[in-house]
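My main concern about presentation is that the manuscript never shows what a single data entry looks like. The format is easy to grasp once an entry is in front of the reader. For illustration, here is how one protein appears when written out as sequence plus structure tokens:
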Amino acid sequence: GGIDILASGAGAGEDIDIIATGSSVNINSTENVADSIVISSTNGGIDIFALGAVAGEDIDIVATGSSVNIQATEADANAITINASNAAGGINVDAGTGGFLLDAVGGAISLDSTAASNFTTTGAGIDLTLSSVLGSVLVESTEDAALAIRLHANGGTSETIQLHSDLGT
């Protein structure tokens, strides 16, 4: 049979505490159904902490053969926050052939850095398009240096660089 741990009718502060001093707490479900393990909080938040963990002791979320979905419904500019707060910390996002899609419907996208950066596509016929529909495209450099802005083509003897304006000068 199953095991139920209930605190029916309990008031605030009348919690169920599971404490393993000097050992681990493991929760494992072998039933092959959707939602075989559910952690839910109806009127509050859920926090997962790895306080005092040594380097390399991570919090891993792995969905073998399925997806990981993160969704927030709060109307807040920081509804989902990913923060590597250590000064030497970084964020690495890798995607396979399905690509990486970033949409900001009705909002802005800002990519900012204080270090030299690049955006590269690789492969014959793999183009990079910078486009603004009903807006402007501004390429600006404030560095006082030769080649502050440089358009460079280096693909062969048929290459060209074209500046074109349909209605203006």
Summary: Residues 90 and 113 are 12 Å apart (CA to CA). The chain is about 0% helix and 0% strand. The chain has a mean pLDDT of 89. The two ends are 81 Å apart (CA to CA).
